[in-house]
Here is the input.
Amino acid sequence: MAMAWRLPTQLATKTHHDPKLSWCRTLSPDHLQFTPSASTTTVSCSSRGLVGHTVRASVGAVNLTPGTPVRSTSILVVGATGTLGRQIVRRALDEGYDVRCLVRPRPAPADFLRDWGATVVNADLSKPETIPATLVGVHTVIDCATGRPEEPIKKVDWEGKVALIQCAKAMGIQKFVFFSIHNCDKHPEVPLMEIKYCTEKFLKDSGINHVIIRACGFMQGIIGQYAVPILEEKSVWGTDAPTRIAYMDTQDIARLTFIALRNENVNGKLLTFAGPRAWTTQEVITLCERFAGQEANITTVPVSVLRVTRQLTRLFEWTNDVADRLAFSEVLSSDTVFSVPMNETYSLLGVDAKDIVTLEKYLQDYFTNILKKLKDIKAQSKQSDIYF
Here is the structure.
């Protein structure tokens, strides 16, 4: 029996938004009814002219009769090689979980995951037929994957995630943790944020026991963006907008994630993780300059240029995804605050705010322990790949 989730063709967006860029805001799914005879599940979506496009996830015959219980410590991490994913894996292993990592086949194997003690299984979210085998014997799925910059956003972040959730439902996964983006429900003009919001709704309506976590920004991302260029005396790119982002250390995000995972009161909730303070680009650069002991060579890009560039790139079909990512950059370059009060979340999770790393402490440790040493020995810049 093939089940369909349909994104209506009429796009519910504000009049000033380009309807070609928007994923529809309202999901009207039928109830999932997986049966032993079900062999595929389908999803119909409508975006940028993709009316009637379907996602098919082959799940094979599903045996719903009781079998060997799955250990609650068995987890599958999707996106395990990413900035956040690797910290999720490390934290899980440190806390005694049996960790399996879904990694797409690649020329450079994820050997560091095996070295840490995780099991690596090859699969690809863009090929749904490879997903079911990775879920056998798994209790919890933690999804922190995002498509690569060179990939069409739709392929992994929508079609792949829909297939993953459907397979998880069919195979009886007990809990699903999904990482999303703060304010994704407020920016339908940005495809990645709209897809994240639609995926949140899809997961909620699937009936799977779940936790949704929205992140504001990662401290680790600041290293390649600002810290390394400053030390190497290269241009630091910024904008003239007063956007404020409450960056959080991914190690803290991973720690809070597993606290939430074990807290039954968090089931079905949407949490937002934000750092202790929201920072503008200029404030972050100033911090890096102070700890680096040298001034930054700042190249400021006006927000108006981003807007013009985005419109120009949309004139060519092969640059659509460039335009999508510039749209996201435009949001990050607007007068927006990516932060939320965390007192209620800390109380719910039983966490002391004093235990959350501040950006000042993170950058100070990074410059002192890593970058200064690499600079002294004139190391070539693979520095942006180093996280701690």
Observations:
- The first strand starts at residue 4 and ends at 6.
